[in-house]
Amino acid sequence: MISEAERRAAAAALMQADRDRKPITQLSRTYPDLEIVDAYAIQQLWAAERVAAGARLVGHKIGLTSRAMQMASKMTEPDYGFLTDDMVVGDGARLDASRYMKPRLEVELAFVLGKDLHGPDLRVHDVLRATEYVVPALEVIDYRTEVPRAITDTIADNAAAAAMVVGGRVVRPMDLDVRWVAATLAKNGVIEESGVSAAVMGHPAAGIAWLGNKLAAVGQHLKAGQMLLSGSFTRPVSVEANTVVHADFGPLGSIGVAFQ
User: Which Pfam families does the UniProt entry name for this protein (predicted)?
Assistant: First the structure.
């Protein structure tokens, strides 16, 4: 583990990288003793700083939900990060590509809770019962450190979360089988990726149950009104200036976003 002073220095360096749009050396290299518990503590320091500056926490994102990504990161479980109100934009948004370093997009579903969820021992049915609605989403991921990255670098860097786009049709979780939501992702009119939501741990609500149980271990819980990104069911697609992205979720509508 690293000291509290080192955690704060690491959080400050990540925040500065985000402001300057210049990646820093991997924290795992700067602090060779960095552990996962340190990485989450650094992430929380960053979140607290964002809130102190006027942002509002609105939910969480879940990452590394596919076995392939876990193996690539040498992990046996997902990871998570925070979402603030200034990270959420609507369908048709125009985003400044220079605001990010190497932005990529992932296709996801967002769950919005109607009731609090307390772990441990949460299951998929608990998540569905507590969910008010599900809505299509795109996550913008970005790196504030150099690559290649250890899992501790990713977690400290807010699990690579940069922004999210929501749109399409709002549905209640029992009105469809949320395991079988399919989507395509097109960049400048060319379909780059496609997938189905069952690719997220067999059920996209499984990741949210995992998160609720994980937070319970540190005395926290998922709260009514929070928006929870359940994990990507496509590979990330790189975007840059002069890129228009269209995600088609079939019966659940579509999302469009432009980078300029």
Answer: FAA_hydrolase (PF01557)
Report the distance separating Cα 96 and Cα 259, nearest Å: 6
- Judged against a pLDDT cut of 90, whether residue 64 lies above it is answered with no
pTM of the predicted model as reported, rounded to 2 decimal places: 0.95
Element holding 47 (H helix, E strand): helix 36-52
Indicate the pairing of strand 254-259 with strand 93-95.
Answer: parallel
Are the CB atoms for 101 and 144 separated by under 8 Å?
Answer: yes
- CA 13 vs. chain centroid, Å, equals 21
**Element of type H or E holding 86:** none
In whole angstroms, give the CA distance from residue 122 to residue 119. 5
Residue (of 237, 255, 233, 123) closest to 182 by Cα position: 233
**Bond from prior residue into 120 cis (ω within 30 degrees of 0):** yes
Query: Predicted confidence band at 230 (pLDDT cuts at 50, 70, 90)?
Result: very high
CB 92 within 8 A of CB 245: no
Reported confidence tier of residue 74, pLDDT bands at 50, 70, 90: low
Q: At CA 22, angle to CA 19 and CA 28, rounded to 5? A: 105
Give the pLDDT confidence score for residue 76 in this predicted structure. Answer: 72
Separation of first and last alpha carbons in the chain: 41
Q: What is the DSSP string of 155-220?
A: HHTGGGEEEEEE-S--B-TTSS-GGG-EEEEEETTEEEEEEEGGGTTTSHHHHHHHHHHHHHTTT-
Which tokens in the block code for residue 56?
């509002």
CA dist 18 and 10 (Å) reads: 12
